[in-house]
Model the fold of this input.
Amino acid sequence: MSNELTDAIVGMREDDALAIVGRELDAGVAPTVVLDEAKEAMTVLGKRFECGDAFIPELIMGGEIMKGISELVKPHLRGPGEAAKRGVVVIGTVRGDIHDIGKDVVVLMLDVNGYEVHDLGVDVPTQAFVDAIGRFKPQVVGLSGLLTLAFDSMKATVDAIAAAGLRDRVKIMVGGAPADRQVQEYTGADGWGGDVAAALNLTAQWTGGEA
Amino acid sequence: MTQSPNGGVALIACPAVVRELADDRRAARTVELDVGLHRTPARLTAALQQAIGEVEADPAVTAVVLGYGLCSNAVLGLRAGRCPLVMPRVDDCVALVLGSNEAFAEQARQVAGTYYLSRGWIESHATIFDEHEAMAERYGEEQATRLTGLLLAHYKRLALVDTGRYDLAPYRRFGQERAARFGLAYEEIAGTTALVDALLAGPWDERFVVVPPGGEVTFEQFHRFPANKED
Done:
């Protein structure tokens, strides 16, 4: 496995990264291997961000490059050999909050990891989550927010899901930079995550698979 | 418990908050931390704890006030030393200049995609437009415009908070120019100096979290659980 792709993504060299992916796919490298290299780059960026060595624009740019790569890789994943989806996830940024950079990366990573993801967008009303659970029958619901005011919206959403009689059918994770165990308890969710890896782990755990 | 300062107040604050204080308002000691720390809450926590220790080493200091809200939970876990530790019971500095979490939530209900501006943020170079300039230097204007566009994708309104303390004219120009450039609706919304003033002047009533000496800042002090509403 080459580090060339990882380096290009971490170095924000989008054109290079896409060219490398094209070359690798043409050369017959397995699409899952290519995705793993790209995922590794996102992990590196995430760690740098935590240490203060990378900033939001770098994360966004990494996400943009990742989107481009997954578009290139996806056609190679489709076909008779494609495995069944690992699980269904409904996710969105809760009412009153419009921050979606972290949420979008989670969506992307769940997607490339084989989940069926329904992204409800930002400033999502509680009822939209309830409706989506009825429609898509997810095992996992992700409530995202960056602002601390989102805690109350997350709590209202969990309450609305319970009031609709759907609470036992889904596992709910709350996520975003300020999320922690206390936020999980306050909102009545089943788990919390402060980064993409945590969201992937919880989803894998709740859908009976490996991270 | 309602308390008021009695001299000896040390203020540890974000530069954006310091610039919202009245010009004649002085704490016994003022420590301004880096304005960018809010992006890395763990670092902000460490910087705050260190600053608390530093100001408490001064025997003249009798209370430590933080010019910070919950700020992505950065204040949680902070420990008061020998002095009470006081901070406004708000989510962040937007709620601080709007007067309360309720006022902030009301603005979010009206237009969730609001980017807020104030004198403090503009003069501290803490706005997304300052980041745009930094990105343009690093990646070029074209890439910076693309990234800022992505950052602002869900924002519709640029709101200048008018606390009534100062002449808005220079900040209005700043806001109107950026709003036009990045396709946002410009609006001026009413804020208040009430909470900012009470930081140093008191009273430290229910609008504030007051941690006794040796105590710790907890989540419950900011967001109350339904089961223990009495606290």
